[in-house]
């Protein structure tokens, strides 16, 4: 009876605490609204060229300001009264006592991590940790199911198992395996529970249709034309027809990851013709009925995914906590409690990695600390491997986070299931939301980036693309972890959702952040009946919607700070006129929308920090854009991934932004990419005064190098600020870059450099760049001792030799060259006969290769690369003899590097 009474009291205390915390949040949010409404009225000035209208406005505006101040005083008085009531309630119910629980005491006792000295062990994560626990054997088993019988007919193999077992990891490994021979085209599709059929089919076609960068039958201008431009406007039946036509005469390999229902398979299988070419489809699903429905042929077999055996679970756990296969002697006292924790994880890699990531962050690693964690797990998954038990384990990752990082954690729920989250946009949004607090002149985006690194180290997110420097370029949130984050977000009224029917947000007093995620299945009537008031929203995220999901009027969203409309093809130029009246806006993303022109009203966005117009038809900025004094990031243009390897991409040279006169007014600008220097010599002359500029990407498509002169002069003035520089002169028969051979003051702190264009010799100042980490070259037509020159760069980690950057016959990495190089890309060096490693690049981890023709002498010396982890072949043509030779050498290599092929 006493225990039951104690439990009831604890529940009551938690209820009072929850209510009190909600009231505190609402008072704080309303106070912020009050201030921002006044700022909106004060800053929302009318601009007119008519002198009479301007004169009238000068009289009327102060009167409106007085009215706003009067309303503000009333609001402040009401807020003060509400705050006093909330404070009295805290004292009356002794809310402080409710915070005395063990779990909160543990969290409060934890010291925040030192983000300035965060361990950067990220490169190891590029090889999935599950590979260490039996993935090789599982991969071989699945490939055997795919290949057994050598059937000409289309064969489907489902991988079935509950969430967190590592089905996707296994599917990715099989997909990249070079032992799947003869595959002519392939695609990997993340389906998820609520997928948009159009977006999925667009992704499939983009992966299937790849036009060679250099087609001799095309003119140079025609070569850069995107055959899929305007795909957003195509009818679904047209996309299906193009997919089938492309697959009809090829042996293809398709992965459909995370299929949820038999109906999903019925919708998708029409895309894949049975062409008697030994084509294969691999499916992952949690549902046995789905797996059986996919196996329409007697030759189709199901692979059942099993939990990890206990010994393999221990190996994965210790690898995550200590970076070792077993418990170190210093921590032998933790073995018993480790076994208890692992029993509650029931062999699920996701649970093991999540708990291991959290324990790896503990400073002292004492038995008492770990016992508290074990107790907080409760029964976990020990009795039954349920999703509920998994959620309990993953929730610990949230409670263990420092307070200032929790908002960033909850924010991950704005992304749809299976969405690849890019590092740059994420950290810029965190900063714009106000989640990051800096001191003095600290760069908020740099702090935010360290928070993301923290999530990676704790396995809250999974890296999907990692740079050679160890920087996580993009990541994903596991669907079960996403459920946990979404549930917490709704519980705390942090984010509201439209489109996630399983999450009810009707109890929210006011919507502060809104994420609209639709799959194209909602009826118009359902949308019209959604009459929620969004006027208090600070963030609106509508991602990848081909049709307007709700009748939202932008004119009513006066308090908005963050607006992300990426992939919203319905957005019009007319909508932009309303958006540009949101004077408090800090972050505006129009990427992959149908807009073609920014209105002059954009100059009103005085607080705008990020303007992202990439992959749109916007080529010119209005003159008023130079009034954006707070702007730090101006991003335009379009990249083309002419292979599926995200590390190999091409900037479309016709897509750069034209910058108007007055660029010098953008005093805060840090990133400017990509700009057309041929369009405005005045703007290029003004570049030199932008002392905060760290990233600059400029191109010139005109013949002759005269247009580069004012740019080169400004470059000399930016010698201390620039960290990332791209110079593109894509007329490859023109020595347009010769002006850069001699710079009076080269950018000495440069970390990344990309040079596209013909040069007679390598600019000598490049060899003095002691901080240079990444160097990319394209169509420079270098010959001779290129590697001997570049090999002396002390900090170089990544070298990318793109098409025709090197036209010699031999690339030899000699001893004492490239001491820190980790990544090498050789992309279609046209005359290459031999690639050899003779003691140079001793730290090379990743080798990525594409050849127009098979090198006459071959590839030699990978045994001299002791740290090699991965060899990847890509391109229109992949020579089987090269791949098979590399597989043979990899088997006897001490580090057993993985060999991939992308075609």
Structure, described:
The structure is a single chain. The protein is α/β, with parallel strands linked by helices and 903 residues long. Among the domains are: 2-100; 105-127 and 308-490, no CATH class; 135-304, Rossmann fold; 500-522 and 529-636, Ribonuclease Inhibitor (Leucine-rich repeat, LRR (right-handed beta-alpha superhelix), Alpha-Beta Horseshoe). α21 links the parallel β12 (562-564) and β13. α15 crosses α19 (479-491). Mean pLDDT is 80; it is low at 1-7, 46-50, 96-132, 211-219 and 522-529.
How are the SSEs placed, and which strands pair?
Layout lengths: L1 H42 L7 H42 L9 H8 L25 H13 L7 E6 L6 H10 L8 E6 L6 H12 L11 H4 L12 H12 L4 E8 L2 H8 L10 E6 L2 H7 L8 E2 L5 H13 L12 H11 L3 H12 L6 H10 L10 H13 L3 H9 L9 E2 H11 L10 H14 L4 E5 L5 E5 L2 H13 L4 E3 L14 E4 L7 H5 L10 E4 L19 E3 L8 H7 L7 E3 L20 E3 L20 E3 L3 E2 L9 E2 L19 E6 L4 H6 L8 E5 L8 H10 L6 E5 L23 E5 L17 E5 L7 H5 L7 E4 L8 E5 L8 E5 L6 E5 L7 E5 L7 E3 L9 E5 L5 H13 L5 E5 L1
Parallel strand pairs: 1-4, 1-5, 2-3, 3-4, 9-10, 10-11, 11-12, 12-13, 13-14, 14-15, 15-18, 18-19, 19-20, 20-21, 21-22, 22-23, 23-25, 24-26, 25-27, 26-28, 27-29, 29-30
Antiparallel strand pairs: 6-8, 7-8, 16-17
């Amino acid at each position: 009876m006493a225990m039951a009474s104690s439990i009831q009291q604890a529940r009551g205390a938690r209820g009072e605490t929850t209510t009190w915390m909600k009231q505190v949040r609402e008072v704080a949010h309303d106070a912020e609204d009050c201030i921002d409404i006044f700022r909106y009225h004060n800053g929302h000035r009318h601009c007119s060229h008519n002198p009479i209208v301007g004169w009238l406005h000068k009289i009327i505006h102060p009167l409106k300001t007085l009215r706003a101040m009067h309303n503000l005083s009333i609001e402040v008085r009401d807020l003060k009264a509400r705050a006093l009531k909330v404070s009295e309630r805290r004292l009356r119910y002794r809310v402080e006592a409710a915070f005395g629980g063990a779990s909160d005491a543990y969290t409060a006792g934890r010291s925040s991590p030192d983000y300035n000295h965060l361990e950067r062990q990220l490169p190891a994560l590029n090889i999935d940790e599950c590979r260490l626990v039996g993935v090789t054997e599982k991969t071989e088993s699945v490939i055997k199911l795919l290949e057994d019988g050598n059937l000409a007919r289309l064969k489907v193999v489902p991988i079935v198992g509950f969430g967190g077992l590592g089905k996707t990891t296994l599917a990715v490994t099989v997909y990249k395996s070079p032992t799947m021979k003869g595959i002519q085209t392939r695609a990997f599709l993340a389906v998820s529970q609520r997928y948009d059929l159009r977006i999925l089919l667009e992704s499939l076609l983009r992966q299937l249709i790849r036009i060679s960068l250099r087609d001799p039958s095309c003119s140079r201008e025609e070569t850069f034309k995107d055959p899929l431009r305007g795909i957003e406007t195509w009818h679904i039946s047209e996309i299906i027809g193009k997919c089938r036509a492309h697959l009809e005469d090829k042996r293809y390999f398709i992965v459909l990851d995370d299929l949820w229902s038999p109906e999903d398979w019925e919708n998708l299988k029409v895309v894949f013709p049975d062409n008697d070419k030994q084509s294969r489809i691999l499916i992952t699903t949690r549902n046995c009925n789905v797996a059986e429905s996919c196996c329409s042929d007697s030759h189709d077999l199901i692979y059942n995914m099993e939990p990890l055996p206990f010994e393999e679970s221990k190996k994965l756990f210790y690898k995550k906590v200590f970076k070792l296969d077993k418990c170190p002697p210093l921590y032998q006292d933790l073995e018993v409690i480790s076994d208890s924790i692992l029993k509650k994880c029931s062999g699920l890699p996701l649970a093991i990695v999540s708990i291991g990531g959290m324990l790896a962050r503990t400073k002292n690693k004492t038995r008492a600390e770990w016992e508290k964690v074990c107790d907080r797990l409760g029964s976990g998954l020990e009795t039954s491997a349920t999703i509920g038990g998994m959620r309990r384990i993953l929730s610990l990752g949230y409670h263990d986070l420092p307070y200032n990082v929790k908002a960033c954690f909850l924010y991950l729920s704005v992304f749809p299931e299976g969405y690849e989250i890019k590092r740059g946009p994420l950290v810029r949004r965190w900063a714009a939301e106000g989640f990051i607090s800096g001191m003095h002149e600290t760069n908020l985006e740099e702090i935010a980036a360290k928070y993301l690194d923290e999530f990676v180290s704790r396995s809250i997110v999974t890296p999907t693309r990692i740079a050679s420097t160890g920087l996580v370029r993009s990541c994903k949130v596991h669907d079960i972890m996403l459920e946990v984050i979404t549930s917490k977000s709704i519980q705390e009224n942090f984010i509201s959702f439209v489109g996630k029917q399983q999450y009810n947000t009707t109890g929210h007093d006011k919507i502060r952040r809104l994420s609209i995620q639709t799959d194209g299945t909602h009826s118009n009537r359902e949308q019209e009946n959604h009459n929620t008031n969004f006027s208090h929203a600070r963030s609106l995220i509508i991602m990848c919607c081909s049709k307007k999901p709700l009748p939202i009027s932008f004119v009513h969203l006066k308090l908005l700070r963050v607006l992300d409309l990426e992939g919203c093809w319905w957005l019009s130029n007319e909508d932009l006129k309303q958006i540009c009246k949101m004077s408090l806006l800090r972050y505006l993303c129009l990427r992959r929308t149908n807009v073609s022109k920014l209105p002059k009203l954009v100059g009103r966005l005085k607080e705008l920090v990020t303007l992202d117009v990439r992959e749109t038809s916007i080529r010119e900025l209005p003159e008023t854009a130079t009034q954006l004094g707070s702007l730090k990031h101006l991003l335009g243009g379009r990249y083309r991934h002419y292979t599926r390897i995200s590390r190999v991409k091409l900037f479309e040279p016709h897509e750069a932004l034209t910058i108007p006169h007055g660029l010098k007014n953008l005093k805060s600008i840090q990133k400017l990419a990509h700009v057309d220097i041929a369009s405005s010599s005045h703007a290029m002359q003004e570049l030199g005064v932008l002392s905060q500029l760290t990233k600059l990407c400029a191109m010139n498509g005109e013949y002759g190098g005269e247009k580069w002169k004012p740019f080169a002069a400004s470059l000399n003035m930016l010698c201390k600020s620039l960290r990332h520089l791209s110079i593109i002169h894509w007329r490859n028969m023109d020595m347009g870059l010769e002006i850069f051979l001699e710079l009076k003051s080269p950018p000495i702190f440069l970390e990344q450099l990309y040079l596209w264009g013909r040069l007679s010799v390598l600019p000598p100042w490049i060899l003095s760049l002691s901080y240079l980490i990444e160097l990319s070259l394209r169509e420079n037509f270098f010959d001779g001792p290129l590697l001997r020159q570049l090999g002396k760069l002390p900090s170089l980690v990544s070298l990318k030799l793109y098409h025709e950057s090197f036209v010699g016959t031999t690339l030899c990495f000699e001893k004492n060259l490239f001491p820190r190089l980790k990544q090498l890309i050789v992309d279609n060096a046209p005359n290459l006969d031999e690639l050899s490693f003779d003691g140079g690049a001793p730290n090379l981890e990743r080798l990525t290769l594409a050849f127009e023709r098979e090198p006459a002498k071959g590839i030699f010396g990978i045994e001299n690369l002791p740290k090699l982890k991965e060899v990847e072949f890509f391109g229109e043509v992949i020579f089987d003899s090269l791949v098979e030779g590399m597989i043979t050498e990899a088997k006897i290599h001490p580090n057993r590097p993985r060999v991939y092929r992308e075609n």
